[in-house]
Design goal:
By secondary structure, the protein is an alpha/beta fold. Helices cover about 50% and strands about 10% of the residues. The strands form two sheets. The protein has a six-stranded mixed sheet with strand order 1-3-2-4-5-7, with helices on both faces. Strands 6-8 form a two-stranded antiparallel ribbon. Strand 4, helix 12 and strand 5 form a beta-alpha-beta unit. Helix 10 crosses helix 18.
């Protein structure tokens, strides 16, 4: 992507300055810019500006990439026709037609106030809540755990309902909590208690937490409790950026001592999926951690991570943030998010070969561990043979940001296509 305005901006700005400074008698102004076709373009320039932008932008969205030169030329011609009609049928009659000047001003002011009121209404409610795409996403979250969002503003954080739930308190009521641990951070431990005989643990970082809503929802239907234990990336390593002393041992003691826990799924983020990738000592996937967890009657699964979308680190905007402002049709969801990603020339998917570069080395490293079952189906679940789409067949996002799946759409797919056989064992 090119930075805006960049080096393209100075030439036209300086050109305009020079033309104005040259005055009316300069050849360019007296001959070329006084030519009737050029004068006509000047007359329709503002409506042309208003028309060309949506035509070119939505064409790029609908064809999921840069339109061909021929297509763009046709759209530019269409924009000029529409601009001419706008000038002749709207602008010119208002400016120069018959009718009282005061009435026209009053009508224009009323229109401006109406648009301002409509914009204020949309801004106040953080979007248009009755749009189909918003209703469907809220319906999905109600189905997930009965925790619908209070307002569409919470679509910005897909875990908002979870933070307001009683899952953190239920965990602490059963297992306690040390005074040295953070007291107000709900990202550390969660428990969905359905009074089942067995309990499944999701252990890891934010990737485990992203899977928790869909896994706990599925487990609830089969009568199994679900625990999430973790924190942000590398919290268990003493040299990690989010290290919390004693937290790893606290989690492991619970897993070893609570015999109702019969399965542990480890989900953890790895950034270096390349030829240099290796599982280092102290990693959540390392052999010493697996050995520390093992006990009779406990099954341990290493869940191979989902793909990481290519491109530089994005801003704080997320796919679901864009969902709030997208139109009620499917395609415009794609543009503003994917357009910021470098190395991606398509708004709908990334080539599978690009998304899985180095992934086989990562899998081989996971397979080297003993005493745990490696679950490898994430790539096939989220990718076809040739590409990895960012949205499902209904236009809902599979990813919350570059490396996290969405808790409903992405999480449900992870459960149905990858984890379900192991959850049912």
């Amino acid at each position: 992507m090119k930075n805006f305005p960049g080096v393209q901006a100075p030439p036209p700005v300086l050109g305009a300055v020079f033309l104005i400074a040259a005055g009316r008698r300069a050849w360019a102004n007296r001959i070329f810019l006084s030519w009737k076709p050029i004068v006509w373009i000047g007359l329709i320039s503002y409506p042309l500006y208003l028309w060309h932008w949506p035509l070119l932008v939505y064409a790029r969205v609908l064809v999921t990439g840069m339109p061909s030169g021929t297509f763009r030329a046709v759209l530019l011609a269409a924009a000029m026709i529409l601009a001419a009609l706008t000038y002749l049928l709207l602008e010119k009659p208002i400016r120069f037609g018959k009718g009282g000047r005061k009435g026209k001003i009053a009508a224009l002011c009323a229109g401006m106030l109406l648009l301002a009121a409509l914009g204020g209404e949309i801004w106040h409610y953080k979007g248009v809540e009755n749009r189909w795409v918003v209703r469907e996403y809220e319906r999905g979250n109600r189905e997930l755990d009965g925790k619908a969002y209070d307002r569409i503003k919470e679509v910005r954080d897909p875990m908002a309902w979870l933070m307001k739930s009683d899952h953190p308190a239920v965990f602490k009521a059963r297992y306690g909590w040390r005074d040295t641990f953070p007291k107000d951070d709900p990202n550390l431990a969660l428990l969905s208690d359905v009074k089942g005989k067995h309990t499944t643990v999701l252990l890891g970082d934010s990737h485990a937490m992203a899977a928790y809503p869909a896994v706990s929802d599925y487990n609830a239907r089969i009568g199994v409790n679900t625990i999430y234990m973790g924190h942000t990336w590398n919290f268990y390593a003493e040299d990690g950026p989010s290290y919390i002393p004693g937290l790893r041992d606290f989690y492991f003691d619970i897993i070893r001592n609570d015999l109702s826990i019969h399965k542990v799924f480890i989900l953890n983020f790895f950034t270096k999926r390349n030829r240099e990738f290796k599982i280092t000592r102290g990693s959540m996937f390392s052999q010493d951690e697996i050995d520390a967890l093992r006990r009779p009657g406990l099954k341990i699964y290493l869940v191979a991570d989902n793909i990481m979308l290519p491109g530089e680190k994005m801003k704080n905007d997320h796919i679901l943030e864009e969902l709030r402002f997208a139109l009620g049709i499917r395609h415009p969801l794609y543009m503003s998010f994917m357009g910021r990603m470098e190395g991606v020339d398509n708004f709908l998917h990334v080539p599978r070969a690009k998304a899985t570069n180095g992934y086989q080395i990562y899998l081989n490293a996971l397979r080297s561990t003993k005493g745990a079952t490696v679950i490898e189906g994430a790539v096939d679940a989220f990718c076809t043979e040739k590409e990895c789409p960012f949205f499902d067949e209904n236009g809902f996002p599979l990813y919350y940001d570059r490396d996290h799946i969405t808790p409903y759409t992405g999480g449900k797919r992870l459960v149905e296509k990858v984890l379900k056989p192991y959850l049912n064992e």
